[in-house]
């Protein structure tokens, strides 16, 4: 019931609107400069700039994109050194122990 259009209009019907005063500053639409206001000096009469975006917290995201011409990297086991699988699924004996048995 509260999400219907009529309920929203009733809720915001009597919202508070700002009152303009004689010492209120304004922005010139053509130049974008602040005009008027009692407390404003020429020092502060400058362009209104968009807010600066602060850096995000944590580790920054990587901007690296894989090249279309770059070949696919072959998976290589760190246990036996053969391509096509990882150490977790390796069924071969370790390469350094196999070399010791032969010699």
Automatic annotation (TrEMBL):
Residues 41-103 are annotated as: Disordered. The keyword Heme does not apply. It comes from Opuntia streptacantha. InterPro entries: Znf_CCHC, Znf_CCHC_sf. This is CCHC-type domain-containing protein. Residues 76-92 form the CCHC-type domain. It holds the Pfam family zf-CCHC. Signal peptide: none annotated. Keywords: Metal-binding, Zinc, Zinc-finger. SMART domains: ZnF_C2HC. GO terms for molecular function: nucleic acid binding; zinc ion binding. The keyword Membrane does not apply.
């Amino acid at each position: 019931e509260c999400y219907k259009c009529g309920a929203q209009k009733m809720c915001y019907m009597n919202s508070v609107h700002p009152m303009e005063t004689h010492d209120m500053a304004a922005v010139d639409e053509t130049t974008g400069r602040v005009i008027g206001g009692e407390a404003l000096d020429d020092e502060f009469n400058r362009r209104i700039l968009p807010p600066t975006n602060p850096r995000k917290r944590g580790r920054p995201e990587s901007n690296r994109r894989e090249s279309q011409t770059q070949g696919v990297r072959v998976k290589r086991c760190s246990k036996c050194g053969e391509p096509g699988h990882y150490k977790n699924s390796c069924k071969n004996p370790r390469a350094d122990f196999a070399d010791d048995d032969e010699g």
